[in-house]
Amino acid sequence: MVVDQPVFNILGSLRVRMPEGMLPIAGTKPRVLLASLLLSANQVVSSDLLVETLWPQRRPQSALANLRTYVSFLRGTLGAAGAQILARPSGYAVELRIDQLDALLFEDLVARARAAGRNGEAVEYLRRPARSGTGGCARSRRHDSAPSRTWPP
Fold it and tell me: Using CA atoms, how far apart are residues 77 and 37, in angstroms rounded to an integer?
């Protein structure tokens, strides 16, 4: 599979796939920050929520400064991959197309499956992430026949 843009995987392990291979994201806090932003892709995540997520037990006095440092680190790492973390007055956002994030792709495929209204087409849409190598839930199970009931349930 040739990837022109990073493919972010959050269904399963957090991964950033580049044409050259996997892009390592070092450190627990940057990984948690990236996962938090990806879980709310294309939406602003408030700085307060990010601070609470990064330090659930005890917030350091330098929490906002540390958050900015982690964002800067991720911008440098992901910038080479063509992805951006945007600063907004209330927090941060990562803007991605559907094909750049496995969770967005999966949601899109589920919507298409429901719109198809037929079991065979629905199963085919849900199998696509597994065949394309994007991972996701469809990869964990193998369905040899379409479900017997009508889609959607």
Answer: 15
